Amino acid sequence: MAAAGSCEKCREDQVSAPCCRWGLLRRSRRLRRSADDGEEDRISGLPDDVLRLFLVGLGCARGAAHTGLVSRRWRNLWTGLPELTFHNTAPDQIEAALAQVTRTSMFLLDIDVARHHPLEPPAVTSLLRSAARLAPAELKAVFSGATQYRSNPSYHVDVELPCFDRTTSISITMFIPAVNLVMPPAGDFLKLESLSLRSCDVSVDSLLPRCPRLRKLCIQRTRILSITGHSPSLEELDVTTHGVLLRVDIEAPLLKKLSIYAVVGISNEFSISYSAPKLEELSWMCGHNSKSGVGLGIWRMSSLTLETRKLLGDKQLADDKESTCLQPQHCPRVDTAHYKDATRSFRQHMSQLPVANFSILELDILTRGHAYGGVVLDLLMICSTVQSLKMKLREVGPRVEECLVDCTCDHPNNWRSQTVPMTDLKEVEIQGFKGEAQEIDMLKLIFRSAIMLERVTIEFYSKVSPRDNRYMETLGILKAHPSVESTVFLRKRVLKFEGMVID
């Protein structure tokens, strides 16, 4: 733990960190004189357990070790600390320090290897094994150094997670590309209750059987393709994967919180099955690339978010929210067969979600000059139980000034004259409203179809003027329905309509 041998960057960080400065400077003459004169050292006379409380308060294993420079009485006290935190320290020095620790049952072991210390997977495995020997109740480990494998992203290496049979909480972050975290050949994590893994791949179905008491599992920035969670004890599951998700299979009788984020998206062969009768909170986020087959006409779903905060059972929801981001990919010619197939695929995708009904539908639409009324109508027909509709209209990227004559964005072209059943719809909120023809037609369709409508909120686009005809036409539609409470936002000015206008 001596400063000698430390890398230059570590020494710079140690000097700037108050907890690490112990022992970096020469021992003062005053300190040596007081020791030689035999002055009474009342602090060093305290019991070991009391002195260790002081050392724990430093928050740094290096600083605690360097207190041995103060007095011989303090020299090896740090080896018996219940909590050890290593930062600003080279990996080989951490390994050497762990070998000196005499305490075999700790409260906390916190290891943070800086980015400027590249680590090969065998070195990571060795550090984890040294940590397992100390049996900490809580383990925090961050390995930030990149390896030689960064230049070859298709290369995969294995890092073994040793058996921490007496540890209750583990948090491991590996900023090392292409790492598979593998289970040890023998042994179980008998006391583990919370496990957090970041930036490494792991087989969930091989992990859970080894953790009989696991209650909370969080896996972030992974590339796993299948989530299989069968656990009698699991209460929270949070997974974020950058791989194309193929399958979700969950069987957890005590599961209360479930969060799945498929950043890239799901496969066309995606399947989901789950049994979680006590599930209370659900969050589902799904991204889609431009090649995704999930869409309606030219529209493709770039992201999907589903949330609920109320009690739900298998395929049943009392209340939930579904957010969808739609954007056009191209401006092709009309292909009715393709449009019907796309509609069917979108319905199939919605039916695969672990819910039966949606009560809140939020749409984030990147219009880019295209008509979107038809796709919104189709979504409302698919999500027929929606009670609250929120639409955010945005222009992102180069605007398409004018669609091709036969662009499918407005398909089917008779949607403006339709009346569809919206018997549950009570609230509508539209942001970025410009008063264009399709928006006016959509507003009329909603008033015509939603017989239980109670509130409408419209926030106009910032460039719309109170003198614009489209603004006046919108106000006319709202005034024509006095039974509906309507609110209009225009350049921070608020108008409310409840049978009368309030400035």
Automatic annotation (TrEMBL):
SUPFAM superfamilies: F-box domain (SSF81383), RNI-like (SSF52047)
F-box/LRR-repeat protein 15/At3g58940/PEG3-like LRR domain: residues covered: 156-287
Tree of life domain: Eukaryota
FBD domain location: 425-458
Gene3D superfamilies given in the database record: Ribonuclease Inhibitor
Pfam family, one: LRR_At5g56370
Protein name: FBD domain-containing protein
